[in-house]
Amino acid sequence: MTHDHHSHGRVTLGGKLSAVLVAAGSSVGLGNIWRFPYIAGDNGGGAFLVIYIACVLLLGLPLMLAEFSVGRAARCNAVGAYRALNPKWSLLGYNGVLAAFLILGFYFVVSGWTAEYMVHSITGEFAHYTSAAEYQGAFERFITHPWRPLLYTVLFALATHAIIALGVQKGIERSAKLLMPLLFFVLIALSIHSLLMPGGGEGLRFLFRPDFSKVTPSTILVALGQAFFSLSIGLGTMVTYASYFKPDTNLRHTALNVTILDTLVAVLAGVVIFPAVFSVGIEPSSGPSLVFITLPSVFNGMPLSMVWSSVFFLLLVVAALTSTISLHEVVTAYLHEEWHLSRRAAAWATTAGTTALATLASLSVGVLNGWKIFGLNLFDALDYLTANIMLPIGGLLTCIFVGWVLDRQTLRDQITNHGTLPFRIYRVLIVLLRYFCPAILLLVFLDNLGIF
Ligand code: PFF
């Protein structure tokens, strides 16, 4: 029988490790394995990596700590948390809940693709194709199929729902404890396999050698958006999860560990993908389809191809699932606590709403492709709007809120666990949150609006 942990009437997660695994479960996702490699590929490889790591350390880490502090201080959902700390700032919580909802709109779709690809890898259906062009054809036929991608999208949403319905401890915490170690194990096995591949050196050089000639100001916004997306910050996921942390959880260690794990997974995903891609002489910058077209064809040339490709797509499914769970929880906790729905009803409302949006997004890359918003189909529009606009704005407002508006004592109590941990980091944090982060975020925004 599991023992229920409660603190001030709120469910809390078990030990230290649980906080790290649950938050890392949210962070490590399709953003690391599907999105990071093609974005790095499109934006100059190693040069992008350098800028990305700078964004993670200087902006991502302080912001994660800021969100952790807000969540654990208020101990409620994102909207309620900002409202409890300052009634005028509930808007920031709404930006987060809405962003979580919209991200699920396209995230469930890609998650569905990964599930379908895993099944196809296992049944050996991919083994019939011989050229990259055939894989491309197969991918396009699949995502434009009228109902197959929908089926997998719905199944993925239901799987997420099932875990959320089990609750914070038995659903979210238990699944993270099971799935995250599995994910690391699989990722390490795939990395070793990739490093042993003949001709893989070129892929590693591409990933690690910086070529700054490809860097433009918009690269920095892309890196920033990717860092926030990958770390799950700027929308209240970490607020929501930290609301379940224990009073003695060390927020800085947790944030540091999550940030390191997340970045490590992104880099290792690059190590898995680029040497494989270069070993068969394909250009890496092939956009979002890198993982669904290039990789299956790369796997196909290898001995035991079915095994490697099944394991790779299993990795994606696992990574996606722990992230969809966190996004779902942001919306579910909000509906449950603010609208006073039962948790069950809140979870169903979230599942129904996000599945409806994901259905439209899925059709928008297929049958409804003619239907454009600002020149983008719904799927791309949801990705662009959330990662490049809502998350950076959420991040900017979060550092202004925590740096300038939030009562200093509240922040200090959270960061130092009521004075039981040293103060040094708190001082650095406050400078970053007050001056550095808002300044950089504003500059990047204004620059991208063409102000300079
Ligand atoms: N961090 C997840 C990923 O990298 O795939 C995506 C994500 C989850 C973004 C949760 C935002 C979020 F709140």
Low-confidence stretches: 1-7
What is the strand content?
under 5%
How many structural domains are formed by the residues?
1
Could you tell me the number of beta strands? 4
Global geometry: globular
Q: Quickly name the level 1 CATH class.
A: Mainly Alpha
The strand line-up of the biggest sheet is 1-2
SS element count, helices: 18
Mean pLDDT: 90
Output the CATH topology: Hydantoin permease
For the record, the CATH architecture stands as Orthogonal Bundle
What assembly state would you assign to the polypeptide chains in this entry? single chain
The string of secondary-structure elements, in order, is EEHHHHHHHHHHHHHHHEEHHH
First-residue to last-residue Cα separation: 61 Å
Helix content: over 70%
What can be said about the biggest beta sheet?
2 strands, antiparallel
Question: What structural category do the secondary elements indicate?
Answer: mainly alpha
Bound molecules: 4-fluoro-L-phenylalanine
**Taking Cα atoms only, what radius of gyration do you get, to the nearest Å?**
21 Å
What does this structure look like?
By secondary structure, the protein is mostly helical. It has one domain (16-448): Orthogonal Bundle (Hydantoin permease). Helix content is 74%, strand content 2%. The protein is built from 18 helices and four strands. It has helices at residues 16-27, 30-42, 46-74, 78-85, 90-123, 132-143, 148-165, 168-195, 201-208, 217-231, 237-242, 251-279, 294-300, 305-338, 343-364, 378-405, 408-415, 424-448; strands at residues 6-7, 10-11, 372-373, 376-377. The protein has a two-stranded antiparallel ribbon. Strand 3 (372-373) and strand 4 (376-377) form a beta hairpin. Helix 3 (46-74) crosses helix 4 (78-85), helix 12 (251-279) crosses helix 13 and helix 14 (305-338) packs across helix 15. The chain is globular, with a radius of gyration of 21 Å. The termini are far apart. Residues 1-7 have low confidence and may be disordered. 4-fluoro-L-phenylalanine binds next to helix 1, helix 2, helix 5, helix 10 and helix 14. The site of 4-fluoro-L-phenylalanine has 16 residues, from helix 1, helix 2, helix 5, helix 10 and helix 14.
